[in-house]
Write a structure and sequence with these properties.
alpha/beta, Rossmann fold, eight-stranded mixed β-sheet, two-stranded antiparallel sheet, 23 helices, elongated, disordered N terminus, ThiF/MoeB/HesA, NEDD8-activating enzyme E1 regulatory subunit, ubl conjugation pathway, ThiF_NAD_FAD-bd
């Protein structure tokens, strides 16, 4: 009987998470495994969120809920069984969620989220993210203050019937690896010296048919641009018309009608218009006071950002560090490897210059050199053209201190989903007055619709919004009341997917999360994102 070789743990984990590792790599997976998530109220939507976090390997999850399972819970929550009736909802849902992934630690606390928020706020310091579902507004505001003070990411969730709203509140959130669709930076509009020197070594007219068909399109474009400049006072083709003229010149240089490398050159003429790699988002980061005024308290992101800003002003000659990425293209192996090496060496040279500046800055602010890992500098330089910085308003800002009146007023004219946002908030006012939500036991639908409309008008008046008795407004109120404060399994599942996706973006610090509110309208199958 032959022995079966043991498979290393890391290999097993790689096989298990193969698909997602292709999305966010080992750094993202490590961030997920180190995350500590707290779910307040084990609602159907909340459990669907956790399902989509436990499956990809979030390390630690705690479910806090003091509710006892009843028949209503069974209708919409797939993480409850008939045997769960009469038992703790937190314990029952946590037990079934834990079965999804043995790598995740899923625990429960049969305690009131509201009491913990007001009486044991220090408990929440143990978590990196809190997902709060269907909390009352006053409790959510208190939790918002706690999370803001402790720099914890908060996702506030409300799901009723066929609609739902979720809102992200987080500390300053930089994203280095945004995974842009077009991350290639070839510098064709502003070629560097080493690239031009290589282009000069190739004479297209002296090449035989085979070699002519294997010249990389980068070389072809720069060759023809150089000829254009010689005929136009050293100016590149700037307008659409001039670039079309350049295309005609390139077409005339084709020896056969199907030279693929020349076709690639024609398809990439637009890249010649890109002479500056610095976007407005990156410039805003460079101009930020946190970048200008470094101190011992500055985090690594701002230190590297400042180093790159200084690089741009000096060694970079107005350009960001080169990423060094080269796309696939029609070429023979020797020429492609030569071109790839030129881009790689330029990228490494830029990287070393930035690293040197980072070390100098760390010495200036008297911070240990290991404060900024080399891996972070590498990633920053590779993605410098696409970095993002998100700053989130708090829920208290949105509800009390500085409501986004203009945003709501402008959005509601174009997007009927904004009525659902207002109705969700008005429903909290309804609850404060009547001790129940619109449509719940103890009221009649017609009466509650009128009362909910009144609360919504009052909210709109407080925000200085014009009140229009539109069909969309009345339809939204009727649909909210019709479901009597209940969740539906299909909307809970969809909302769970949306929220988990944004949570993973926040945890991994990859891809660009929303800022800050998402409204889903299951009746019209539409969603809206706005910053409130």
């Amino acid at each position: 009987m032959s022995a079966i070789a043991a498979v290393p743990i890391n290999d097993l984990k790689t096989q298990k998470y193969d698909r997602q590792l292709r999305l966010w790599a080992s750094t993202g997976q490590t961030a997920l495994e180190n995350a500590k998530i707290c779910l307040l109220n084990a609602t159907a939507t909340g459990c669907e969120v956790l399902k989509n976090l436990v499956l990809p390997g979030v390390g630690n999850v705690t479910v806090i809920d003091d509710t006892i399972v009843n028949d209503t819970d069974l209708r919409c929550n797939f993480f409850l069984e008939p045997s769960s009736i009469g038992r703790s909802r937190a314990e029952c849902t946590a037990a079934l969620l834990a079965e999804l992934n043995e790598d995740a630690s899923v625990t429960s606390m049969h305690k009131s989220p509201t009491e913990l928020i007001h009486n044991q706020p220090e408990l929440f310091d143990n978590f990196t993210m809190i997902i709060a579902t269907n909390l009352h507004e006053k409790d959510m505001l208190t939790l918002s203050d706690l999370c803001d003070h402790s720099k914890i990411t908060l996702i506030a969730v409300s799901s009723k019937g066929l609609c739902g709203v979720f809102r992200i509140q987080a500390p300053e959130h930089p994203v280095i690896d945004t995974h842009p669709e077009n991350a290639v930076d070839l510098r064709l509009g502003c070629p560097f010296t080493e690239l031009l020197d290589y282009v000069d070594t190739i004479d297209l007219d002296q090449l035989d048919q085979t070699d002519h068909g294997h010249v990389p399109f980068v070389v072809i474009l720069l060759k023809y641009v150089n000829e254009w400049k010689q005929q136009h006072d050293n100016q590149p083709p700037a307008s659409y018309s001039e670039r079309n003229q350049l295309k005609e010149c390139i077409r005339k240089g084709m020896r056969t009608v199907d030279e693929e490398n020349f076709e690639e050159a024609l398809a990439n003429v637009w890249r010649l218009a890109t002479t500056n790699t610095i976007s407005s988002n990156v410039r805003n980061i460079f101009d930020d006071q946190s970048c200008e005024n470094l101190s011992a308290q500055s985090n690594a992101f701002w230190i590297v950002a400042r180093a790159i800003k200084d690089f741009v002003s000096n060694e970079g000659h107005g350009q960001l560090p080169l990423s060094g990425k080269l796309p696939d293209m029609k070429s023979d192996t020797p020429r492609y490897m030569a071109l790839q090496n030129i881009y790689r060496q330029k990228a490494l040279s830029d990287l070393e210059a930035v690293k040197s500046r980072v070390r100098n800055l760390l010495r200036e602010i008297d911070v240990p050199e290991d404060t900024v890992p080399d891996k972070m500098i590498d990633d920053f330089c590779k993605n410098a053209a696409h970095i993002q910085l998100l700053r989130y308003r708090t829920l208290r800002d949105e509800y009390v201190t500085a409501p986004s009146k203009d945003t709501i007023a402008n959005t509601i004219q174009m997007d009927e989903n904004m009525y659902y946002y207002l109705i969700f908030r008005a429903a909290e006012r309804f609850f404060d007055k009547h001790g129940r939500y619109p449509g719940a036991q103890g009221g009649t639908n017609s009466t509650d619709v009128n009362l909910l409309e009144q609360e919504t008008r009052s909210l709109m008046e407080g925000l200085g919004l014009a009140i229009e008795e539109s069909d969309a407004f009345k339809k939204a109120a009727n649909n909210f009341v019709r479901f009597a404060d209940q969740e539906t399994a299909n909307i809970a599942a969809l909302m769970g997917g949306l929220i988990a996706q944004e949570a993973i973006k926040m945890i991994t610090s990859q891809y660009i999360p929303i800022n800050n509110t998402c409204i889903f309208n299951g009746i019209a199958s539409t969603s809206s994102v706005c910053e409130l």
